[in-house]
Specification:
With 362 residues, the protein is α/β, with parallel strands linked by helices. The chain is built from 10 helices and 14 strands. The strands form 2 sheets. Strands 7-1-2-6-3-5-4-8-9-10 form a 10-stranded mixed sheet, with helices on both faces. It has a 4-stranded parallel sheet with strand order 11-14-12-13, with helices on one face. It is globular. The structure holds threonylcarbamoyladenylate and magnesium ion. Its EC number is 2.7.7.87.
Length: 362
Amino acid sequence: MSSDSTPLQSSAVINEAVQTLRDGGLVAFPTETVYGLGADATNPMAIKKVFVTKGRPSNHPLIVHLAAPEKFDQAQVDWVAVLAPWVRDISEDALKLINAFWPGPLTLVFKKNKSVLGEITGGQDTVAIRAPAHPIAQELLRKFKGGVVAPSANRFGKVSPTSAADVRSEFEGELGLMVLDGGDCEVGIESTIIDLSSGDHPVLLRPGVITPKEILAKTGIQVYLAGEELKEGDALPRVSGSLKAHYAPTTPLRLYAPGRVLDALTEFPDIKSRVAVAVWDSESSLGEAGHPSVHFEEVEMPSDSGAFASRLYRSLRDLDQQGWDLILFPEPPAGEEWDGVRDRLQRACFGSGPSSSSHDSN
Ligand code: TXA
Ligand code: MG
């Protein structure tokens, strides 16, 4: 295995990873969003290992990762061939989305083919599919010649990993887990998920860096938020809305409104003495905040939504290991481009603190 600073790309190592998958083993690999914990999507025992290793309840469905066709930018028909073993209907909308955004950080939910294992889908009649853009993920998938299920490579309820070192620290006890090293993930938060299976409207199930606005601009397709635009008689979209907690650090985490750092402390009557406060790099939000018994330390975060997303999990992980009593993050600004970050931060707040394990998450 490579050292943490040397991205691992040799063919020999990828071949070894392919063999590990074929043998029913697990391989953690980089994607452009976060690292995934991969297993052969046709092997029920290997899929079971994913759930056990993560400590994830078996009714939480997994995303199937597929290789892009060799000439994906030229022929729509290639994508149809790639998807055919997995999904029942490939709509016009699906093809437009695929041609605009795959390979990339977009997951699509389809009606599943009969042969797709119930272990993947949590017994539902739909399957989530994505073609990741990271070159190591693509090489692995191309050589494997099959689907790879891969949840984020973190223990259930914890922050998703954005480097090979993060994965190793999540699974320290798992001797022999193969981890492909592709450096730091560029996108930094999980893929946008759009449900195409629930009737006429594509429905946003999880916000990410690909936003409904961008989808509309590139494809003309209107994506609805769950519950929007429902007419009488429409099927209710299936959303994972009950999953409140997720991506949670062990240190308590809260959001503060612009200039209201001290307000965020009122919830903690036994005033915390060491508080890390994330601030925008353009201006210090901490400003005049002062408190007789609290030591604040500022941590700069980018004011661009994409750069912020790219840094978010890295910062949460690092801060979580530095022994703060409380971590404060600024409330993200209004605007769709912040929805992915806002979603992750709110869930991280909800599940944060030492006793977060009872919350529902991935
Ligand atoms: O960026 C990503 O999507 C990363 C990388 C590794 O590809 N993967 C990831 O997987 O975030 P995971 O398992 O941590 O999250 C998958 C999400 C879950 O919220 C799950 O409920 C949803 O996808 N999902 C999977 N199959 C589904 C389905 N058939 N219908 C609705 N939601 C589904
Ligand atoms: Mg996850």
